[in-house]
């Protein structure tokens, strides 16, 4: 039996991850009282080979004072010969606050106070679990389908996992540099398809624009050098414990050159299959929207 303990910060996606595991035929229990964990694991182990092959237990800050006993319970499970894995869902504080404001729900540790104070208290309470985690997924920039892809890769396909999720983000400088970008590259030195009448209405997602940009030797050389740099930097960032890396690639409007180079970098990083990779084009449609106004 494969046993997964799903935990993390409130609002980071724990309930969503449990539902995804349930869809993958895991027997899932959320917010199980910690004193009952050992009995539950023993029961599931006894049912192995019948209808249940794998199980997942959701644990979070709602466990209250019992959370202090969890470390002891985990040690007892290990001593009893039960193997388990810990999946920890995390996200930036700003993202968590935004999610709570949008959902209009109260944070479990800040019922009548500020959400950010509740998040701070929760981080302290959950710190020991994050340190013990086998997998840490930062959901700050992940769409639901991207989280599902990661869950399936780890717990269904048994794929190799790295705690880092990389976001390749194209943008337009005239709309501002992304606040969350860790690395920013400027490709405005490349020939601009905007000045070609037949290419102007298209984007870097269209083959004619893509070929126009990449037919430039400078673009090909830049793509090669950028790939080499990323393949050097990313493992070193991962070694230092970084779980989220946003690579921003910008041109003037975020429609042609940046989209093209972001696509190229994304495809090349995908080939490594060592990290979670996502691609986003922040400003690809903004010019069209502005013209309609």
From TrEMBL:
Residues binding GTP, per UniProt: 60-63
Domain of life, source organism: Bacteria
Keywords (A to Z) from UniProt: ATP-binding, GTP-binding, Nucleotide-binding
RapZ-like N-terminal domain segment(s): 1-158
List of residues binding ATP: 8-15
Keyword set includes GTP-binding: yes
A Pfam entry, by short name: RapZ-like_N
RapZ C-terminal domain segment(s): 164-284
InterPro entries per UniProt: P-loop_NTPase (IPR027417), RapZ-like (IPR005337), RapZ-like_N (IPR053930), RapZ_C (IPR053931)
PANTHER family recorded: RNASE ADAPTER PROTEIN RAPZ (PTHR30448:SF0)
Name of the molecule in the record: UPF0042 nucleotide-binding protein
Species the sequence originates in: Blautia caecimuris
